[in-house]
Design a protein that fits this description.
about 400 residues, Aspartate Aminotransferase, domain 1, Aspartate Aminotransferase, domain 2, seven-stranded mixed sheet, two-stranded parallel sheet, binds (2S)-2-hydroxybutanedioic acid, identical protein binding, transferase, PyrdxlP-dep_Trfase_small, PyrdxlP-dep_Trfase, L-tyrosine-2-oxoglutarate transaminase activity
Amino acid sequence: MHFDPIGRVPGDPILGLLDSYRADPNPAKLDLGVGVYKDDRGQTPILRAVKLAEQRLVDSEQTKSYIGGHGDAAFTAALTQLVLGADSPLLAERSGCTQTPGGTGALRLAGEFIARCLPGRSVWLSDPTWPIHETLFGAAGVPVSHYPYVGAGNRLDSDGLFAALETIPEGDVVLLHACCHNPTGFDLDRAQWQRVLEIVRQRRLLPLFDFAYQGFGDGLEEDAWAVRLFAEALPEMLITSSCSKNFGLYRERTGGLIVLAAGREPLENVRSHLAAIARGLWSTPPAHGAAVVATILGDEALRQLWQSEVQAMRQRIAGLRTGLVEALTPYGLSERFAHIAHQRGMFSYTGLTARQVHRLRDEHSIYLVDSGRASVAGIDAERLDDLASAIAKVVA
Ligand code: LMR
């Protein structure tokens, strides 16, 4: 048989958990695996701004013909403004955005671009990082290396990070998480970002920002601070932006790869390659999510409604972080897990070992990624005590 020799590969470390969770008959199960926001009722609702935009689109959409290779121009312009700032001079001069199927598609496009146009360059990833970074750059044939990010005692290792960045060969690509680092939730402060910028400049590295959680850290504008700092200081960079989380458009696969080049001419050169690569990957991007985002960002009332919904999601996650630390207090664990309240975004690197994570899954039907990453955004506020009690049992 043709298929006999192929064997079987392990399931995806994150999406595979979702399958196990769905198959678990325990009514008290808790899903803290995949990064999906849930509200007080454990639902991942469609944002009201999205519903209203969709209703408008149903009435006004005239065609289902293809959108262009770089995507919906209203969407890519609006997304670039959201990322770089509405009044950024870079918008007109030397930035371009190619619409992609989600942030994952943008990363794959960036990987293929590096493999094709910057051969021999490695991509440097934080250790740890989102495991799919390894998958995507590996699939594109780009060599992958790592810089340290978390040190002893489950703390951000900024000294280790700076020292490693200083050894990266000139010209290599360094992937930086713009905010809400996945999986750890540890973000750099502004002074640390300035230091990274100095090193990137000295070593002539090409920064690739993964910007998947804009609005989930400190605010839509605040979370873009590092990206804008680098964009204004450097002639060239790549930014992958996702609308999965902040617009709740997960399954609509909506995102973009933003390129900054030294001028119009080199920008159009890069974009010609991106269009050619995208044609070979997905031909043209899916239209619906992008039309929704363009509708929201292009209408003042919808934009304001959306901003208030992003704020509500962010505040709920922050409340869950402090709530979990409080729930752990009666077990004498508040200091050990104090970092959960200080981390940012959907995820917390709890510091739980793979063995403890497995016990949570097997004995309590609580699902976390093996690395000890918990999707705080998936916690049910009414179940914080159950979660704390289960954690206390597995760390005892
Ligand atoms: C996650 O890390 O859980 C999310 O980014 C979803 C995904 O695609 O893995």
